[in-house]
Amino acid sequence: MYHLLCVKIILTILFLKICHKNVFSLHPINRTEKLISYTIPEKRGLKKAFGYDEDTYLNFTELTTKYNYPSEEHTVTTEDGYILTIFRILAKCNAPSRHYPVLLMHGVLDSSDGWIIAGSEIGIGFVLARNCYDVWAANHRGNSYSRKHVRFDANIDPEYWDYTFDEHGNYDLPATVDYVLQNTGKAKINFVGHSQGTTNFYVMNSLKPQYNEMINLSIHLAPVAWLKNTESIISIIAAQGSGLIKQFLSDIGIREFLGKNHIIHVAFEALCQLVPDEICGTMLALTVGYVQGTINPKRISVVFGHVLNGVSIKNADHFGQLIRSGKFQRYDEGISGNLKRYGRQHPANYNLSLVTAPVVLVSAKSDWLSSVKDVKILCSKLPNLLENYEIPLAYWSHHNHLWDDNIKEYLFPKMFEYLNKYN
Ligand SMILES: *[C@@H]1O[C@H](CO)[C@@H](O)[C@H](O)[C@H]1NC(C)=O
Ligand SMILES: *[C@@H]1O[C@H](CO)[C@@H](O)[C@H](O)[C@H]1NC(C)=O
Ligand SMILES: *[C@@H]1O[C@H](CO)[C@@H](O)[C@H](O)[C@H]1NC(C)=O
Ligand SMILES: *[C@@H]1O[C@H](CO)[C@@H](O)[C@H](O)[C@H]1NC(C)=O
């Protein structure tokens, strides 16, 4: 049934694309014009009146304040002008922190909030701080905390959105690592990434191998590199048309998809207050194989106030290319674009032999996106793999690593086994 629905959506988009070309070609859209924006201003009073759980709309700083974990807000500017926000949760323990700082990198459509919205008991950011770690939660370009640029306006300039996870790895993550090291005076960091956050890590350490030296240990939850065997139905179907969809959306002036406070996000946020498992649980089930009911529905309501935090259309197309090609390679700009950008006709593969920093992978049987088969390919390429730990529960999927109550038993012991050993 869902397959059929997706096919219909794709056909509709293709149909519109054809109409757009043929029927409206007399008035070609001036591509330098303003972007279309669907952003709805946040109305907290209204949310409060409708009985939303407060954590749904509190931001990072407000959440850490509420749960009594002192935090700081930092900004860093990347080499190519993007201004990013990094949050820091100070170690909450009596002794001074003796560990390397931990840098957290979120996944696609997520932000730093993903590490704390599970609450003070199991939110990974809070748990690390309680265990005496100095926690830094990054935000890549384009999410609601990192929408500024020295020249471009994210709401107006299409150039702002001309990036994929390649730029997250090549610019955002290195700038963030540099900043954390400089600010803390430490020689290395520990890295914990989720989903695309791990992709960013492979990109950084292969394109800028000097960063391997700055990583003491890295833990990768739901790692994403090869997507040859992905079982995510929506991703597979969308991937088939991702180039066309990108072209179509860019023609009508859309460069950002599923942004925070865009119409779709606001609708999900509202519906998921009422029927979290039916609506948002189903959405997660379709995209990543989430088994409904395994994350507390109240938490799902809170999560959907924070996620759907924007992806550039070009980034979505880059993932589509990975699915279609079965390769883990740089963005394919087309032959002339590739010659201009890379000096070669076809994009290069990311060379995982260069990712020499120690890596622990944490994977899961029911994760459709980061499938067990694709994680195996990744394992075979990583030169310094310490372990691929597969969560021993059949239902575990992509987001259970962040928000499932069982992470206390199934993730934290493994995480701290390595963090403690490596410090
Ligand atoms: C498109 O719009 C911009 C700004 O409004 C204008 O400067 C430019 O000349 C237009 N280009 C075309 C091809 O109409
Ligand atoms: C978080 O919310 C507070 C209070 O509304 C606001 O002052 C602050 O600027 C917000 N922080 C960010 C990073 O958006
Ligand atoms: C990580 O840090 C520990 C403690 O300082 C050290 O013994 C170990 O060699 C480091 N490992 C790497 C890969 O830097
Ligand atoms: C990948 O990196 C390794 C290690 O430096 C190197 O030996 C190999 O030639 C590289 N592969 C490609 C395809 O560039």
From TrEMBL:
Signal sequence coordinates: 1-25
MF term (GO), any: hydrolase activity, acting on ester bonds
Pfam families in UniProt: Abhydro_lipase (PF04083)
Iron as UniProt keyword: no
Any single biological process term in GO: lipid catabolic process
Domain Partial AB-hydrolase lipase per the UniProt entry, residue ranges: 61-118
Keyword Signal: yes
Alphabetical keyword list: Glycoprotein, Hydrolase, Lipid degradation, Lipid metabolism, Signal
Gene3D superfamilies (alphabetical): alpha/beta hydrolase
PANTHER family, A to Z: LYSOSOMAL ACID LIPASE-RELATED
Protein name per UniProt: Lipase
Gene: LOC114245462
